[in-house]
Amino acid sequence: MPGRRRGTRAVPARTAGRGKENHVFRAIADVLRQIGGAVATVVTLPFRALARLFGGASASTRHGRA
Q1: What is the 3-state secondary structure (H, E, C) of the chain?
Q2: DSSP 8-state code for residue 13
Q3: Using DSSP, how many helices (H) and how many strands (E) does the chain show?
Q4: Per-residue pLDDT tens digits for 8-66
Q5: φ and ψ at 2, to 5 degrees?
């Protein structure tokens, strides 16, 4: 078989465990997403409380003088 090299492939073979890398990165991304959601909730709580406080106060004055 002239012109054919033995032991080399034009297409590299699939590496064992290559599919697992994708799952690991997805798991890490899911954990980071959950942590980010928890941090966002904690950070926005005071602002929500203030908005509810001032929103409730303005609503009571608006409805009280109708």
Answers
A1: CCCCCCCCCCCCCCCCCHHHHHHHHHHHHHHHHHHHHHHHHHHHHHHHHHHHHHHHHHHHHHHHCC
A2: P
A3: 1, 0
A4: 666 555 555 556 778 999 999 999 999 999 999 999 999 999 999 998 666 555 555 54
A5: -75, 145
